[in-house]
Amino acid sequence: HCDISSATSSRADIIMTGENFRSQFQHYTINSTIIYLKRLVDKNEIKFDFLLSPSHRKSDFGKKMTDEGNTLYWLPSLTLKHAFEYIRKTKDFYKNNANKYDIVHIHAPNIAIIHLFYAKKYGLKVRILHSHNTQYANTGIKAVRNFILVRPAIKLATNLFAASRASGDFLFGNRKYYIINNGVDMNKYGFNSEIRTRVRNK
Prior knowledge:
- This protein is an alpha/beta fold.
- It is built from 8 helices and 7 strands.
- Helix content is 42%, strand content 16%.
- Helix 5 (109-121) runs parallel beside helix 6.
- The protein is globular.
- The N and C termini lie far apart (49 Å).
């Protein structure tokens, strides 16, 4: 449970971000979790907006969120070439928009230090860091880089979420965190005798 008592109205406004949602938001992982949760909440009580990379301008996820009335904000791609631009525009976003939101929810721990630092600086009270993985990266160099970036970011978060016990223990250790399982509606994949009969009759 996140304390949203500081919300500016009866509705909680949440800004979500990740480094590259098109590559991270694969089927039944982060994107399915968000889409599933959005279906469960009352739109009059909770509103989700998104801070995205350019790759989402034509992505299915970006289009779906736009069609559902969510506001999309854009940052440059986080590459070595555009790193300073990314930091500057992230700072500008929170400076100009932090007062519009009650919660920031970060799905990419390696960029969390940038977002959480400016979110805190500009007064965003509830800052969520969400772990979806059980390793820092696929390669040694990136893993060392991400380890260095993630450890101080954890201290800037007010709430810690994880997709599983394994991903939570990996990133947060003994710290208190909340598990939000990836949003797969298991009823869709349960046994169905009618479907079995149709398949066997083909």
